[in-house]
Each structure stands twice: as C-alpha cells, then as structure tokens.
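Thread: Newbie trying to understand structure tokens

Hi all, I'm a second-year student working on a class project, and my supervisor (Dr. K.) asked me to get a predicted structure for one chain before our next meeting. I've only ever worked with sequences, so writing a 3D structure as a token string is new to me. If someone could post the tokens and maybe explain what I'm looking at, I'd be very grateful. Here's the chain:
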Amino acid sequence: MTDTEAFDQAADWLCRARRVLAITGAGISADSGLPTYRGIGGLYESEVTEDQVPIEAALSGQMLRQRPALTWKYLMQIESACRGAQPNDGHRALARMDHYLRGLTVLTQNVDGFHRAAGQDRVIEIHGNLHRLRCAECDQTWTVADYVGLALPPRCDDCHGPVRPQVVLFGEALPTDALRQLDEALSEGVDLVMSIGTTSVFPYISGPVVHAARMGVPTIEINPAVSEVSSIVGLRLQARAVDVLPRLLRRLEARA
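---
Reply by user tm_fold:
Sure, no problem. This is what the structure looks like when written as tokens:
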C-alpha cells in the first residue's frame, strides 16, 4: 500500500467513525518546540545528571520525599525548557475533530497541557499536568502559568507544607481518577483507535491498541518512527502528527 493509499484508508476510517480514542505521546508536542529528555540534543544526553544521579532517579517519588530540592531543580529545568511553547496545528486539528464525531477521547502521556489549551474536551492526562500544583499537607491545589518566582523547593502559602506538581513521577502509581476515565471511555465502546507520536512502551498505552486490533476495530498509527504497536496496527502513517492530523481534519470537514 502506498502512502497515499494508506492516508486515504485512514481518512475513510475516521470519517466512518463515531467514537474515537486518540492516544498521544511526546511526538505530537515535538513540533511545539518541546525538547526530548534523552538522546542527542535532549536535556539529559548523558547517563547521569550533573548531580551524579540518573534523571529517572532525580525525578522519582522517592527522591522528592528524600531530597525535594533536587527533584525540583530538574522539574524547573524541564519547565524552563518548555516555557513559552504553545499547542501546534496537530493539537488544534485533533481538538477540532471533536465537532464531527459523537465522542473523541484523548489519552495523553504528555504533561504539557497542550490538548486542553487547544480546546480538547475529553482529555485523560494519565501522567498529570506540570502546571497543576498541590500541597502535600493541606491538599490545596492551584494552577500556575510557569514556575518563575517559585522557591526551591516551593512551600504552600497557607500551611507552609511541601508543594509538588500533579504529575506521576518515576516509581509512583497512576492516578485512579485518570484510570477510571479511561475505563469509562473504553466501556462506552470505540470504533477507531489512533496511536499518535508515542513509542507505546507502557502497557496501559499499548493495551487499548492491542485490544482493539484483536477485536477487529480499526487502528491507525501516526509516527515517523517504529513503536511497540507498529506491527499490530491496521494502518501506519510514517509521518509527523503536525503534518497528518490537519489533513485528516480537512477530510472530516469535507464530509460534514
């Protein structure tokens, strides 16, 4: 199947769909200028950080409890590297698709909040959101645009308790509310699953794709690289989300 034929088939599946699950990873935000954390050009190219610990250890729940200043140091580095970035045409196109479908749920691993900023209604932020903070003592929550002015490590203004971002750090459990939302979305039934810009290494990310494929539900992967689900999906579009999603949206608009 040629690239054009694969795209036409994907567009046809999308136009016929009513309930869609879109699973997104770092690839959809790459064109917003967000850096990777590993690899050449990433924030953390070497095996260990300047503090001589792996970044996975620095950004773990255990480290946050034992050495909160260290964890916050790297959280602030990540936030600073992402500061000023905005949703791109891929995020916006996915959000617009919701107008032409009975139900579109986005399951994202990204903590940048771009899907909500683009206007997406049903978003499951399975790893949380970097800009939502919570006090570990009084459980007060609030949202910040950026981390400028935060102390290191930050403390709650009300009770002076330790503050943390509402993200899943290494070694921590997934949020029960997000898992409930995912279970509800799957229970409602989906007739198309799209995997977009994710390596799908976590079972809760690859699982819905694998299950849909086994049940005969159409599955599409949008990813220039090979992932854990590349050999499973019904269609592979080896391109960036920012290039594919706006084109798929135009097909939906044309059929409306």
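A couple of things are worth pointing out once you decode it. The first helix runs from residue 3 to 16. The mean pLDDT is 92. Feel free to ask follow-ups in this thread.
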